[in-house]
Amino acid sequence: MTSTIVYTGDLRTEMVHLQSGSTVITDAPTDNHGKGQAFSPTDLMATALGSCMLTTMAIGTLSRGINIDGASATVNKIMSADAPRRIAKIEVVITMPDNGYSEEEKNLLERIARACPISHSVHPDLIQDLKFIW
Fold this sequence. Notes:
Blueprint: E1 3-9, E2 12-17, E3 23-27, H1 41-61, E4 72-79, E5 87-95, H2 103-114, H3 117-121, E6 127-133
Parallel strand pairs: 5-6
Antiparallel strand pairs: 1-2, 2-3, 4-5
Helix pairs in contact: 1-2
């Protein structure tokens, strides 16, 4: 088992990661009757894509001696205007530290990011727009 989730009322949930005990609270988004005081479930999904990309890149560089410490990502979630309500597009911009990466390393890191497990787990209609700033 990975986690437990409790609906605490007022369009809010509390999730507990069972292995670590870490908690995350979600709120419904403001465009769907919520207060927007925490990540919404769709915010988490979009943000998880960026986190997965960075994590997978870090794992892929462990044995290669490539340092990505300080790499960061910004994520923009775009909801579909038509029914059913869904995420239509996730834009991820990964900014890399100025470590003098070779073209081969850049290509490797971009391939690894695009191959992260979440990227391969979402519906093929979801547009994933990934950009790197080197």
